[in-house]
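FAQ

Q: What does a record look like?
A: Structure on top, sequence underneath. For example:
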């Protein structure tokens, strides 16, 4: 597969499998503009863009949102125990 050029449409996909937090993580991404698919306890996130640099920025934002949501869920779980 050839490397995409800076001006080619591109996409990235991330799957989080077998996570008890999948539904909550999906909910946390509702404002990110990413395509989110939830299947039982697995979450797939697809990010698309017109350029590689924009894809990188969108993916970065999406990953930061996932990390923040994961940390908040972990803390909430810890506090409830």
């Amino acid at each position: 597969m050839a490397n995409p050029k800076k001006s080619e449409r591109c996409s990235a996909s991330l799957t989080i499998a077998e996570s008890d937090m999948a539904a909550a993580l999906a909910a946390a991404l509702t404002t990110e503009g990413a395509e989110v698919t939830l299947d039982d306890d697995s979450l797939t996130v697809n990010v698309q863009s017109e350029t590689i640099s924009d894809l990188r920025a969108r993916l970065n934002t999406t990953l930061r949102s996932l990390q923040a949501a994961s940390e908040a869920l972990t803390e909430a779980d810890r506090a409830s125990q």
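Q: Is there anything notable about this one?
A: Strands lie at 10-16, 35-39, 42-49.
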